[in-house]
Amino acid sequence: MIDPFAATAALAQVRELLEPDGADIELARVEGGTARLRLRLENAECADTCVLPRGMLEALALQMMQPLVPGLTAVAIDDPRETA
Q1: Could you give all domains of the chain from N- to C-terminal order, each with its CATH number?
Q2: CA angle (32, 35, 37) in 5-degree steps
């Protein structure tokens, strides 16, 4: 099981990537080796065109976070664009 504090700290890099587009991301919960994240797009003016699609963003977040979070094997993102 991964440390939620380590996952939150590692998430800072992903947040920096999304910030210029007005998006944000937060740790929702940890389930075993998976970090479940929530994408926030309230201030994103071009959410559909600027912010990466969920699958690409999940892969990128995993790549960025995994070296900093022992035991992290997957990232799953709740993307509001897919439920709207």
Answers
A1: 4-82 (3.30.300.130)
A2: 145
Cα 8 from Cα 78, distance rounded (Å): 16
Residue 38 backbone class (left: φ over 0; alpha: ψ -120 to 50; beta: rest): beta
The dihedrals phi and psi of 49, each to the nearest 5 degrees, come to: -110, -30
> For 46-66, what is each residue's pLDDT tens digit?
777 888 999 999 999 999 999
What mean pLDDT comes out for the span 22-45?
92
What are the C-alpha distances in Å from 25 to residues 13, 39, 46, 54? 10, 4, 16, 12
Q: Is the pLDDT of residue 42 over 70?
A: yes
